[in-house]
Amino acid sequence: MRNSYIVYIILVFHFSCTNSETKLFEKLSSFRTGIDFENNLTFKEDFNIFTYRNYYNGGGVGLGDINNDGLLDIYFTSNLNKNKLYLNKGDFQFEDITDVAGVGGEKSWSTGVSLADINADGFLDIYVSNSGDIKGDNKQNELFINNGDLTFTEMANEYGLDDKGYSTHAAFFDFDRDGDLDCYLLNNSYKGGFRITSIGKDQRPVRDEVGGDKLFENDNGKFIDISEEAGIYGSVIGFGLGVTVGDANNDGWMDIYVSNDFFERDYLYINNQDGTFSENLETMIKSISAASMGADMADINNDGLSEIFVTDMLPQPDERIKTVTTFDSWDRHQNIKTSGYWNQYTRNTLQLNNGNSTFSEIGRLTGVEATDWSWGALMFDFQNDGNKDIFVANGIYQDLTDQDFLQYVTQDEVIQQIASPGSVDFQKLIDLIPSVPISNYAFINNGNLDFNDMTSDLGLGQPSFSNGSAYGDLDNDGDYDLVVNNVNMESFVYRNNTDKLYPLNNHLKIKLIGDKNNPNGVGSSITLFVGDKKYYLEQMPIRGFQSTVDNNLIFGVGESDIIDSLVVRWDDGKITKKDFIDVNQFVTIKKEEFSEFSLIEEFETKIFTQMDDQILDFVHKENNFVDFDRDRLLFHMSSSEGSCICEGDINGDGYKDLYIGGSKGYSGSIYIWNDNKFEKYNYPLINSDKESEDTDCIFFDANQDGSLDLYVASGGNEYSIYSPELRDRLYYNVNNNFTKSDQILPSGLFESSSVVKNYDFDLDGDEDLFVGTRLIPQKYGLPSNGYLLENDGLGNFKNVSDVIAKDLKEVGMITDADFFDYDSDGDFDLILVGHWMPITLLENRDGKFYFKNIDAFENSNGWWNSIEVNDLNNDGLLDLVIGNHGENSRFRATKSKPITMYINDFDDNNSLEQVIFQYNGDSSYTMALRHDLVMQMPGLKKKYLKYNSYKNQTVHDIFNLEKIKSSYINYVYNLKTSAFINNGAGFSNLELPVETQFSNVFAIEINDYNNDGYNDIILGGNLYNVKPEVGRYDANYGQILLGNNKLDYKVAPYKKSGLLFKGQVRDFSTFKNLKGDNYLIVLNNSDSLQSYTF
Question: How far is the CA of 674 from the CAs of 414, 680, 708, in angstroms?
Fold first, then answer.
């Protein structure tokens, strides 16, 4: 996880030097508050976790001022017992008025609570979702209408809201802008225990008439089910656990995000502004959580766009990962996707809003992806510094996924003890399940997408079994306090001490008063403008997990003492504005008191324009090879890193033509420029080499006949060292046709090549070559070679590396290289990058190449993919941009805590294993799960009979010293995509924007695209073929970093760049036709090509 080091140290110092009684969040005792609520669950033979799968999902928290006295009151839902309503008396003193108010509930198993003024009389009503009654009919939802005198009348039936489904939560908002509050009701399926294989495909559109989610339109106080005509799914596979309402596409209309548990994917409903919704998740979001639970929407980077945070079940400590966690296999994951359930991964997801109806999942980048079995998700500003932080309520009363428990209870003798014909001893079964309380999580937002886990320092570290949670200003001091509902322990009430700990942080508290039928302005949004900063909140109190937060909005503005302007976009789309507002006050904004204001949209001319009519029709097809079937302990496939594109004028007409590489089973293709488009030309010789995997290519005049020849590097991970398909191919251009050289390139052996570059390194007037190899087939991890190939002038090449570049022998797992004159001495040097290897510079000294020590490249071992050389600062020296793995990953590496891979024949069966270790805390543990390691090395099964014995295992715990000493060891210290500025004597590292770390970078192009005199940088990448436990890398939609005279690169937003790369970018090609039109071609792996003009 990235660290904003200075901010982090300040926070740690501050909290460590502060008296333990003055944490930011101070837990108040029940004696102090009068709140002694506990959501107690006790064993019942006919009703328990094995008869009702949502038994431990817990209850919610509702905050709202029920009597309009200016103080927030608290409502807790209870699963087995009465719900509770506590009246706020001031100074954190509360009174239980449940019985007097008549809101304890009479139905079975309450879940979510929604506070909203449903009848628009000026008083908040309480809607309770009910569930859990398996046998009977006692789970209708309840609507407690506020009588205005601290009593309520239950009227769900009268309003049409007494739904009988397994309800989780309800969101009230005006989806159709007719002035009143409608209702989205989230239901959880009646069904349980079935898998994808038993339910089949295409079940999502089939409505379950009893259960299923529902959208109710408010028709003069009666709620009418319009789900089907509005485009809302309500099928038997809907396992809804979270409903989150907000503006996902920034059009001013409220959209809906639904978190679904189990195998069903989440839903993202975009409001069509005509009373219907379109479910657009797959076009807007590339990766989602697998067991989605709670969710929230808020703007975490202060750009005025709402992000989406969804919780899941991935633990953070190694002992929990190894004992209670399992992941889908590659085959099962593929089955899930092909069955229509999208790209699901076991982790929290944080979807960054790109402002163009796409989201980039950055949970791993921010370090918020692993918070164990998580429910409540809330994003709010803890300490009024202007950045929204993240709170996660988590815990499961019994570890249902404990692997030792599951392994134990599936033994025949245990089954015989627990189960007899016609009955099961549930008590005995439940007593076997471990119960481990864990602390909730709280992440401080340092800005720039940098979060730190500060749970304990903030005062939130007490282990618990927490579920619903809500924030609100309980004492009216201008900061958000926190309330948490727990299973089998007292609820938590936390007082926020921002006023004591951060007295310089200012705030603005706002109450909205809307139209008569939506008096709280639900669905409105407010934007504050403070200097060059922008702060954005939406008035949507029903959020988190089964809960409702304060409907007064608090903006933290840090140390700013004046707010330049405030803009309200009301729920009906009208705009009002107020200028120059003092901080630290409670402001009421009435819609009727402000004149309507029109916002002027700023439109920028985009740098790139995607062509509707592509200049060539090409779809790359990847062959179906699964690396994990052979290399079980690796996490990324090497076989899908292709392809390549290169340009050259084949026929001498002055236009660039193209070669686009193919994968195994699919030949590469040549396209000739003709009449402002590319036309594919059929070359049987090239088609005959379709069993090779193309990894790089280059047009150059190999035999000095004046025509461009074609060299194609053959690589991939599918082959053995005996496979002739690994032979690189040299095609001679003879009168615009091709013949193939019979040379076995690059060195007389079959090797997996990755890169080819041309340069006349012996200065004899012909083009020589460098060829780098990616890996040794079936020996992944061992270093491979680079080759310098000397041209005899006729296109015959000889490997001269042993003579002029001995350091190329076993230099590493090369992915890219380039020749350039780094030291301005008139000859070209050679730079190499690759996986598990440092950036390597070979200096050209009188025609021989020697390793050159560069301080900036020391301990630079990474998973480098690509390199581009150009002058970034106009000083005449060539600089470097190098694409790496990125930091949006479960893998994390630093110089002091590297990723390590041990390679050896650990089980003495004449084949190599690769075992990867990574730091988790202060020790480096194996990344492989127990069943994967034991499957690969069965001899370890006796050592690790139980999963519990496998936790916190270092390399010295798993293997004996002899094996460790005889292992080849690789290291990774750096995963950041980086730039290096040439200072004449060496290089200095230039930090690039955080967005460049969103995903792997495979393609780089450098040029001055906005014509301001400074070079800009285009990055493309992504990698999908990875194990589900680490999750695919797909957050890069194409980035352009705009240069300036300070080397202060900024990523241009889509509205400026116009770039929207849709897949796994592998290469770029830029060219200009004779008319002066500029083109950018984007080559996507296993997808169609994209083209842009600029």
Answer: 74, 10, 18
Backbone φ and ψ for 316, nearest 5 degrees, come out as -100, -45
Q: Any idea what DSSP says for residue 336? A: H
Burial 572-595 (b: 16+ CB within 10 A, else e): bebebbeeebebeeebebebeeee
Question: pLDDT (tens digit, 9 = 90+) per residue, 188-197?
Answer: 988 765 566 5
528: burial class by Cβ within 10 Å (0-12, 13-18, 19+)?
buried
Tokens of 4: 């904003």
> Residue 697 pairs with which residues in a beta bridge?
712
- Average pLDDT of the residues in 598-627: 87
What is the distance, to the nearest Å, from the Cα of residue 546 to the centroid of all Cα atoms in its chain? 24
Phi and psi at residue 11, in whole multiples of 5°? -65, -45
Looking at residue 986, its pLDDT comes to 94
Q: How far is CA 112 from CA 76, 432, 522, 805, in A?
A: 9, 30, 19, 69
Select from 262, 234, 255 the least CA-distant residue to 351: 255
Average pLDDT over every residue of 261-290: 97
Percent over 70 (pLDDT), the chain: 96
Q: Of 925, 1017, 916, 1028, whose CA–CA distance to 972 is shortest? A: 916
Quick one: pLDDT at residue 138? Answer: 76
SS (H, E, C) 914-979: EEEEEEECCEEEECCCHHHHHHHCHHHCCCCCCCHHHCCCCHHHHCCHHHHHCCEEEEECCCCCEE
- Residue 363 CA to residue 473 CA, distance in Å, equals 28
pLDDT at residue 21, rounded to an integer: 78
User: How buried is 193 (Cβ within 10 angstroms: 0-12 exposed, 13-18 middle, 19+ buried)?
Assistant: exposed
Q: Give residue-wise pLDDT tens across range 920-975.
A: 999 999 999 999 999 999 999 999 999 999 999 999 999 999 999 999 999 999 99
Q: Quick check: 436 and 1 in contact, CB under 8 A?
A: no
For 873, residues 6+ apart whose C-beta sits below 8 A from its C-beta are: 879, 981, 1045, 1047
CA-based nearest residue to 712, from 735, 673, 734, 741: 741
DSSP 41-52: ---BTTBSTTT-
Is the separation of the CB atoms in 1023 and 635 below 8 Å? no
Q: How far apart are alpha carbons 8 and 365 in whole angstroms?
A: 16
Tokens for 260?
A: 């679904």
Closest to 65 measured CA to CA, from 752, 702, 551, 616 = 551
In sequence order, the 6+-apart residues with CB closer than 8 A to the CB of 626 are: 330, 637
Please state, in angstroms and rounded to a whole number, the distance separating the CA atoms of residues 830 and 823: 11
Residue for token digits 């005049």?
701
Looking at residue 7, its pLDDT comes to: 44
**0.90 surpassed by pTM:** yes
Number of Cα atoms under 13 Å in the Cβ half of residue 990: 22
Residue 920: alpha-carbon gap to chain centroid: 20
